[in-house]
Specification:
about 625 residues, five-stranded parallel beta sheet
């Protein structure tokens, strides 16, 4: 970060303060200035359906040609485009110039880290002048400054207007004469060693040099495969995050902004576009992760005709409607997803039937609470004993479910939205509402239930599988699972929330950071959509290539599968050397298997994702 106090201490004695503009007061959301030329070509293709071959090089060469053609030290943007030689009509050249100017306005923003210096000068009544070597015209730069809130200055000196430059030192004598001061009355601040530090000093002007870029992002992913357009988009995204992330917030909030935010934004835009294409007017976000997805989507939804609802449905709350359709014990087993460990106690609980009511009768056939149902040969007798209760409970549960859904206007063709994976809730709703077309749109999906009309934003679930529990925790809802619905007002009845207040606060911090990114990025209008490779790059960097610091941050965060566990819980390496079986058990139980390997081995040079895949193949 800039040493604000040191800079303020040095400028206190000066009445006149000169600021460089780009990379000092103003930041661009690009990795390098010429990236704007690539973005111009991409934008042109969107409008006209074709690219201009080698436009980036044409645009760079045009700047050099314009200097000779118009005999200027610093040609302006009109000169540059007037010198472009393309086998195209004049209005195309004008359109390209217009696109470039629009992108400059869009990509330029206030340097928030440096703003306190400027603000101090304004409040202390310092006389501010601004100086830039730039092909943009004075009016263009003035609009960029105004848009960023920089409007308290005496003069704006631009090389393309004056034909004097900082880079060769010719502008400084002009500035001193223009504002009628001596060199010792002014100090200049900028990022270029030559233009902003060395040459002003040759003109006896004191200077302060600052860093061109402060690296604040932690999850830049340089290993993901991207094409040139995706790489440009990713660099724009990363520079935007770097320019806007607030380092005063907690590490969890910052991870939310940098890692979760792009996923929420990209998925929401993708979902909106698909809803529009399908002409669907209602999107239902499914509990529990859908609560966060709805908040993000509502921030970017600019279509008044697409309505959203968050509905509290779960496997348990939809179970009665599915059981109502069953005709035998085996069909009930499929609905309940019976496992070898399932006992009579859990069987009765899942059916919402009181075991104690039948305890004596069941004892006569030697059926008890802990009896494993798949090992018990008399389950047909158990079924015949309780089937009337099964039917009545299923009817009552279905009635409450349908009433709840009706109260939430689930009575039309629609989209259901969730994080993923197999679309089991979508399948349940389709079985309940056979007359409706219900499409599922997920962040990622497995290959199960391929008969469903479902789609995924991420095309590869296998990339997420090694850290799926860590991924799910980013979206964790703030209430327990839905058990059913109240018989009077049909509002959802929630199970006890599984996490402590401290754990809940961590998830809230992550999600608040993610939602803040969606708010900021959508308002910036820098990128209309995010390619899925771009949106997931940072989370893949966290999940598949963690640092030891990442492991430390998340190792004690819990996850819940069959029971609540820490994300990474392990013994020392020396223990596993003598007990490889225990190593396999602890690794299997880990909610973040790549993180487990990283903590175990600690080396930076290992590709832990490849190691994970190798171990998976070997079993």
């Amino acid at each position: 970060m800039y040493k604000i106090d040191k800079i303020i201490e040095k400028i206190q004695k000066y009445k006149y303060i000169s600021f460089d503009i780009f990379d000092t007061l103003i930041k661009r959301s690009v990795e390098k200035p010429s990236d704007i030329f690539s973005a111009v070509n991409i934008e042109y293709e969107k409008i006209y359906g074709c690219k201009i071959d080698n436009f980036e090089e044409i645009r760079k060469s045009a700047e050099i040609r314009a200097k000779n053609l118009f005999n200027k030290v610093e040609p302006n943007i009109d000169d540059i485009y007037n010198s472009i030689e393309l086998d195209r009509k004049k209005y195309i050249i004008e359109d390209l110039k217009k696109i470039e100017l629009n992108l400059e306005y869009k990509f330029c923003q206030l340097n928030k880290d440096f703003y306190p210096i400027y603000d101090y000068c304004v409040k202390k009544g310092k006389i501010i002048v601004l100086t830039s070597d730039m092909y943009l015209k004075k009016e263009h730069i003035g609009n960029i400054l105004k848009n960023a809130g920089i409007d308290s200055y005496l003069e704006l000196f631009v090389s393309s207007e004056l034909q004097l430059r900082k880079h060769d030192g010719t502008i400084w004598k002009y500035i001193l004469k223009k504002i009628n001061i001596n060199p010792n009355e002014i100090i200049h601040i900028g990022d270029s060693k030559r233009s902003d530090m060395l040459l002003p000093r040759f003109n006896h002007i004191d200077t302060i040099g600052i860093s061109k870029k402060i690296e604040k992002t932690q999850y830049y992913n340089n290993s993901i495969n991207m094409n040139s357009n995706e790489k440009l988009q990713y660099d724009i995204l990363q520079n935007y995050i770097n320019n806007n992330i607030d380092m005063d917030n907690s590490i969890y909030y910052r991870i939310g902004y940098e890692v979760l935010g792009p996923i929420l934004y990209g998925y929401s835009k993708w979902l909106l576009n698909n809803a529009y294409k399908k002409n669907v007017k209602k999107i239902f976000f499914l509990a529990r992760e859908g609560a966060l997805l709805k908040k993000a989507f509502d921030q970017i939804n600019d279509r008044n005709d697409i309505k959203t609802k968050y509905i509290c449905v779960s496997r348990k709350s939809t179970r009665p409607a599915l059981i109502r359709e069953t005709n035998n014990l085996n069909e009930i087993y499929k609905v309940l997803k019976i496992k070898p460990t399932t006992d009579i106690s859990k069987f009765f609980k899942d059916l919402n039937i009181d075991y104690n009511k039948y305890q004596e009768e069941l004892a006569k056939i030697k059926c008890y609470k802990k009896t494993k149902i798949l090992e018990f040969n008399e389950m047909e007798k158990v079924y015949n004993i309780i089937k009337n209760d099964i039917k009545s409970e299923a009817e009552e549960g279905t009635k409450r479910l349908l009433k709840y859904l009706s109260n939430n206007e689930f009575e039309t063709d629609c989209i259901v939205s969730d994080v993923g994976w197999a679309g089991s809730m979508q399948k349940a709703l389709i079985r309940i509402y056979r007359e409706y077309n219900i499409s599922g749109y997920y962040i990622a999906q497995t290959m199960e239930n391929e008969e469903l009309d479902k789609y995924a934003y991420f095309d590869d679930y296998e990339e997420i599988r090694p850290f799926v529990h860590l991924f799910e925790n980013l979206f964790l809802a703030q209430h327990g699972t839905t058990l059913g619905y109240d018989q009077n007002n049909y509002e959802p009845i929630f199970d006890k929330y599984e996490y402590t207040q401290k754990e809940k606060n961590i998830f809230l911090e992550i999600q608040n950071g993610g939602l803040k990114f969606v708010h900021d990025f959508s308002n910036s209008k820098i990128l209309e959509n995010l390619n899925e490779n771009v949106a997931k790059a940072n989370v893949l960097r966290l999940g598949l290539k963690p640092t030891l610091q990442d492991v430390k941050i998340f190792q004690n965060i819990p996850y819940i599968e069959t029971k609540k566990r820490k994300m990474i819980e392990m013994r020392k390496l020396i223990f596993y050397i003598f007990d490889f079986k225990k190593l396999k058990e602890d690794f299997y139980d880990s909610g973040w298997k790549i993180g487990f390997l990283k903590k175990l081995l600690k080396f930076d040079g290992i590709n832990y994702y490849e190691l994970y895949k190798y171990g998976k193949k070997r079993g």
